[in-house]
Specification:
Distance between the termini: 51 Å
Largest sheet: none
Helix content: 25-40%
Shape: flat
Radius of gyration: 20 Å
Strand content: under 5%
Length: about 150
């Protein structure tokens, strides 16, 4: 085994767990999925897999304008797409979840196009003007974030 010489075998851990099916979403229990906002806030799209961390209280991000609203929604969609992608890697036959993934992907693409058109490109592939120019506006993390509640 690849990990025979490390400390994992001292704890009796079986590292072949990757072949065990996840309990995330079944075709019978599709309502086990958080929406994109709740999933982003909790750091997990799957209700069965969410485990709160100690006394952590979820802070809601409150956008102050359309630009921040777009940024937040894009972040939520990107998180949801990444989490759903991990699930679909192991469950490619789950067409219901794939349909949700496709819907979120389409929504994210439209919002990123709107953001690039009105504010600035988010990715190199979004640069479409005749001039190679990034926004001079500070990003949320450069201003300390938006944790006003």
């Amino acid at each position: 085994m690849l990990f025979e010489s490390n400390s994992f075998d001292n704890y009796g851990m079986d590292l072949t767990y990757l072949n065990i099916p996840l309990k995330h979403v079944t075709k019978e229990n599709q309502n086990n999925l958080y929406n994109k906002t709740e999933g982003f806030e909790k750091g997990n799209m799957f209700k069965n897999e969410y485990s709160p961390y100690k006394n952590y209280t979820i802070k809601r991000f409150i956008p102050k304008n359309r630009k921040e609203e777009l940024e937040l929604t894009i972040f939520e969609l990107d998180f949801a797409l990444n989490d759903l992608n991990l699930y679909l890697d192991l469950h490619p036959e789950d067409t219901q979840l794939f349909n949700i993934f496709t819907k979120y992907n389409h929504e994210a693409r439209l919002l990123k196009e709107e953001y690039a058109k009105n504010y600035a490109p988010l990715c190199l592939s979004d640069v479409s003007k005749a001039q190679y120019n990034w926004s001079n506006d500070p990003w949320p993390w450069e201003k300390g974030g938006n944790l006003d509640v």
